[in-house]
Fold this protein.
Amino acid sequence: MSDIETVPLDFVRYEPAEMEQRSAAFLAEMRRRRTVREFSPEPVPRSVLEDCIATAGTAPSGANKQPWTFVLVTEAEVKKQIREAAEKEERAFYGGRAPQRWLDDLAHLGTDEHKPFLETAPALIAVFGQKHGQEADERHYYVQESVGIAVGMLLAAFHHAGLATLTHTPSPMNFLRDVLGRPSHERAFVLIPVGFPADGCRVPAIEKKPLGDILIDR
């Protein structure tokens, strides 16, 4: 450490009671987060979208390479192009590409090849992972892991700001790079519609695993 430049850590330490209150409050807030497929077309403040994307940009990454690009799509024509290309892939998926077991596992979510939310939602965030930097010899490390962490923080930031989201991953997603004019060293990771839920929006009755099923003490 003595040979590298450092800065003081900006860290706030809380008393145990406040730590418990803050962690419990955040858990309660995140338990209200749900995937939404019915969006209102009502626009959302640009500043909120930018703040949430900037929050995602604070995520840790391999060697601090920050191997991500967030493309904010709000133009109706571009959203239409994305929907048309996505639904083409989804028709192939639901029409024979996906094994029956996969389709059976999706059935309780009520999802199919029709993706109107890609046009209805006021904003789409296309997240790309960068295989390398602008120059091919600028290596990036743990790209999938790094981008995955950033996306998790992005979803939490949107929910905390009062917006609903959906993680959409049509396979393959090469069309996103073509529609959005991204370079060949970027690969689409996920497409996130974001906005307010439609009036009367309903979501599938699902449950998350209890803590006892996901936590192991050693």
About this structure: The helical segments are 16-31, 46-56, 76-97, 100-106, 117-120, 143-161, 174-180, 211-214. The CA atoms of residues 106 and 140 lie 34 Å apart. Strands lie at 68-73, 123-130, 164-165, 186-195. The chain has one domain: 39-197.
